[in-house]
Amino acid sequence: MERLLVLVRHGQSDWNLKNLFTGWKDPDLTEQGVREATSAGRRLKALGLTFDIAFTSVLTRAQHTNSLILGEIGQPDLPTIRDQALNERDYGDLSGLNKDDARARWGEEQVHIWRRSYDIAPPGGESLKDTAARVLPYYITEILPRVLRGERVLVAAHGNSLRALVMVLDRLTPATIPSMELATGVPLVYRLKADSTVESKEVLEG
Ligand SMILES: O=C(O)[C@@H](CO)OP(=O)(O)O
């Protein structure tokens, strides 16, 4: 039985382009982001992949990415579940600040710790650990059971909510997760074993 799980980070957003901390703020995709999402759909289509269900966050950039992919693969009406559990990490007080301005103010190292450490949260926001504490229970109760019973599942979400999931799938540790980056609009095609560990992983780069 095939147990297919495809994860994709949304295409470039307006605030990615402007280099702003985004978190739960809700900018849409840029034109480049639209192209990235469309191209992600084309790459999935080239592999002949279709889905039984899609999951996304309550944020526009992820939903828009999901719709563009579904349009490309010829499944525009695929049932899609939207849930806040899949939202980007909440960047708290950093939301809306320019990332270079933040480096100038707090230093390169502190900003890197806020962005990429496992358990140090930005002021008023979520650490990756906090993000994982909502993403993983949702994955385990809502997404994984479907994959294990053979439904082909697409998840269109965010850099840090997906890092929380990839950390578990790829067995990364708090020490190795900081160097893991997810590119926008690059589907990760996982096939799982019956015990929910990873059988194979394919990265569909452009
Ligand atoms: O601003 C954000 O919400 C995220 C993703 O764009 O940024 P970072 O890569 O710094 O975690």
From TrEMBL:
Gene Ontology biological process terms in this record: gluconeogenesis; glycolytic process
Function: Catalyzes the interconversion of 2-phosphoglycerate and 3-phosphoglycerate.
PROSITE patterns for the chain: PG_MUTASE (PS00175)
Subunit structure: Homodimer.
Active-site residues annotated for this sequence: H10 (tele-phosphohistidine intermediate), E88 (proton donor/acceptor)
Site (Transition state stabilizer): H158
Single Gene Ontology MF annotation: phosphoglycerate mutase activity
Top EC category: isomerase
Annotated source species: Chelatococcus asaccharovorans
Record keywords: Gluconeogenesis, Glycolysis, Isomerase
EC code: 5.4.2.11
UniProt-recorded name of the protein: 2,3-bisphosphoglycerate-dependent phosphoglycerate mutase
Catalytic activity as recorded in UniProt: (2R)-2-phosphoglycerate = (2R)-3-phosphoglycerate
Primary gene name: gpmA
